[in-house]
Amino acid sequence: MAGLESKLPVVPGVKNHVLEACHHVVKALRASDNNLDPNLTKLLSDLESHLSTLEIVDTKVVVVEDTGFSEIKKGFKEAKKVILGWEQNQSMILEAGVSKADLFFQALHDVQRVLTSFKALPIRTNKKEKDVYNQAAVVLDIAMFRLEKELCDVLNQYKQHVQPQYLSVSSRGKDIVYDESFVSLDDVVVEATDDQQILGSNNVVLLDPLVIPHIKAIAKAMFACDYGQAFCEAFITVRRDALDEYMSTTLEMERFSCVDVLGMQWEDLNGEMRKWTKVLKIVTLVYLASEKQLCDKIFGDFEPSSAACFVEISKDTVLSLLAFGEAVSLRSCQPEMLERFLGMYEVSAELLLDVDNLFGDETGSFLRMAFHELAKTLADRTVATFSKFKNAIASDESTRAFSGGGIHHLTRYVMNYLKLLPEYKDALNTLLGNMQVDDSIPEKTGQDILPSTFSPMARHLRSIVTALESTLERKAQLYAEEPLKYIFLMNNCHYMVQKVKTSELRHFFGDEWIRKHIASYQHNVTDYERATWSSVLSLLKDNSKDSVSTSRDRCRLFCLAFDDVYKNQTRWSVPDPELRDDLHISTSVKVVQSYRGFLARNADRIGEKHVRYTCEDIESLLLDLFECLPSPRSLRSSRRRW
Amino acid sequence: MRPAQDNQGSFLGRISIRRNQFTDVNTEQEQEDLELFQKHIADRFTELLTPPPPPQPPSEQIMSVTWLRKLMDVFLCCEAEFKAILLMGRDPTQISKPPFDRLVPEMLDRSIKALDICTAVVNGIDSVRHYQRLAEIAVAALEQRPLGDGNVRRAKRALANLLIALSIEDKENVSSGGGGNKTVERSWSFGRRGGGSSAASKGGATIGRNWSAAKQIHAMTANLTPPRGNEAAGLPLPMFIMSTVTVFVMWVLTAAVPCQERAGLANHLPVPKHLNWAQSLVGIHEKIGDEWKKKEKKGSAGLMEEMTRMEKLGHSLIEFADGFHYPAEKEAAESAAAQVAEMAEICRRMEEELVPLQQQIREVFHRIVRSRAEILEVLEQAGKLSAPVV
Lengths: 642, 390
Hints:
The structure holds two protein chains of two kinds.
Chain A: H1 2-5, H2 12-32, H3 38-88, H4 98-120, H5 127-157, H6 212-224, H7 228-250, H8 258-263, H9 266-298, H10 303-329, H11 338-350, H12 352-358, H13 365-394, H14 409-420, H15 425-432, H16 456-476, H17 482-501, H18 505-538, H19 548-569, H20 577-606, H21 615-622, H22 635-638
Chain B: H1 3-21, H2 28-49, H3 65-87, H4 100-142, H5 149-166, H6 170-173, H7 198-201, H8 203-207, H9 213-222, H10 236-256, H11 279-298, H12 305-322, H13 330-386
Main location (chain B): membrane
Keywords (chain B): Membrane, Transmembrane, Transmembrane helix
Family (chain B): Belongs to the ROH1 family.
């Protein structure tokens, strides 16, 4: 070490003059005042002692300078021995312990100083000195190469495997399977949202913290010797491979080309889209955030390299994730993709701020821009899919009446789909804000006070249901029997109201909508009763002038008409038990009362054997209506109990 | 701005005015438009084929980064002009009728394949940037003065890695499986991996399992035949021309930089030899094809001019390094210094142009996506128009 110092450019004469001048000043100060402040006295004596050590060093320098070369050579020999010793030893320097590692770094430091001192004074060097310089450069390169290996070994060996505890992705979420007839989304398959709290802890340990000081020491040494680029390349390679492995092995993310994605079955694609949504979030918020921290820790003193290396490490993976988003956007947007697109859009929009932070500087602008582009593309696709969804509902046509008048699968599909949407309300409100819509509740009426009821999303939801209603109205026209049309409309409207009332949707549709629609299906009930029973009950309208035979005829005709109704309407369906009960009760009240009145007035004239049904018969038979019985039941033979 | 782009602006303007005046399809005006389109294609490729005047540095030569960037511009211009001819002022039902009900989907299918190639090439350019960094290390080491054995040793290591990376054969370039399936063993030295860089060594994984540039190019040309008879005079012709240009540009990109699985592509690319507009294109194709065939035997990461020169310089600098003894002989050192300077210049050019080239390819990607969407939209309109009224 002393030998190296001797090589610093020193001009002894000048230095001595300065020192003498200092001594002089101190002396003069002492002499100037006998009552010196004690602090100042101490300061002066400190200065004097400093000056004297400087003089000692200075004289030493002059002495060593003559013997400098042999000292250098000796120091270098030692350092060389230490470094070359590690050439034979393939194990990690780290594992040899701190003191051994320190020896290595010290040796490296010595070699480096040999080189810098030679560079400082190249003219003075003779042949022998030049040889030492040359050897030192070789030893330095050997040491650097050794450190590069050490870096890779340590990074690989002490890599922490990140477990995907944040992830429970079923790669084939078979939730909404779409086909042209909207049949598949039934009440049962509505998924529970399993979006875990990814945000809970944002950081994972990617590398054993114990080895970080060692890696930092390697970084410091390599950067100091101008091998910073080699350090970065090695670091990037190992960390990028680790990320690759995490993606492919832990997260099992497969890469797909555009051709792959366009040819994929919807079921598979649905699973992949769902998975992508989660993986993008985990990779960005958890893995990459941690990777960035790791880079910052290690490159702390070499700031610009940190950002550049981080970009290089993440680039490939981030671009491949974005490529999937782009590929999916190439598909023609089918209505069934709406929820997946919403999810993908939401997560990409949500992450923009994080991405801007992760890739904040110039080197990351490429990724930043690509991310923003994708978010925009997904936004467009989501809006397009939304419109497509609405159009598909509005233009859904059938050629045959829906048998039984129950709840149409389109109604089920739409309402269950809509129930999934409140989860994406922020995304939807942003996306739909500028889209024109005809809303059934154009202005605040005072009935509803929640702002959500008047949000863009709410307006669009109501307009989707309006589209559904007109489609159902068209389907209702296909029924030959008028009353069944009302039953059908009642069932479907009641279903919508139930779905809205019992879910988040009620905050969007609002009380007024619910009230109106309850009124609407109640109106269907009235219409049904009128259409079915007014003509039947009109048969019972007798007058006192009726002859016996006319009364018997009336009774017979009524029973025949009742049989007809029974035969038909037991096959009809009112799936909701409460609604069915209500319908039974109100029908029963009407029919049985009229019949009882009729019998009371005419029983004597008609004669018991001409009365086929008692009031109790009618009452219990009415309970069979809307039970969706498989085959028509004939009453004429079986129902006579006396 | 480049002159070609100026053309494009005025061309679009003119077309739209004319189309607005009248929309009969087989007018003389359309014929004129088609001829103009062919002429523009011919002019643009002639400009690309013509070597720059002598004082120009090799940086302007065919397959140089600068040239590839020009090629991207040419593609974008052709594409814009083509789209104007195909869509502007046209009755949507026209392109949904035969033979377009076959030709349009085929063309769209090609465009999807082109998208994957764009992605693969953007990845490939990342590998080139890795070569650039290796070369930079070598340059930095060889620029040290006094040049000692240590510097030469360092440079030699970087150069050896560079040469391995540059001469990597396609077969080695491909690994099966998605994500990051590692058939190439990860060695501890960043330069010692088979592919030179992670992106290259798992080239396959970057696009998708079993994806192959060669297969895609083959598939793109499979049903690409010049229109005959009546069709030869109408819209099928520009569709054929544009498809040919697209395939050609993708083929060039695939040749230029490392790209997953491209065996056999050197020979393959049926370009129509007898057509006027295609003359220069054929010329460029032959030049590149010959070079490719030569290189294919040796194995090569790509035909980009800078890479080819880098390889040559790499070999002679390694030779210099092998014979190096400290202190350097003056003569050898001087000639090496000149080569180092040239290598440094290549690195500088790469540093300046590779990222913009990547961005241009991304732009090409987005342009293809947009055009496809526009065409699909028109087809959808046509579907509505031609559907029977319910």
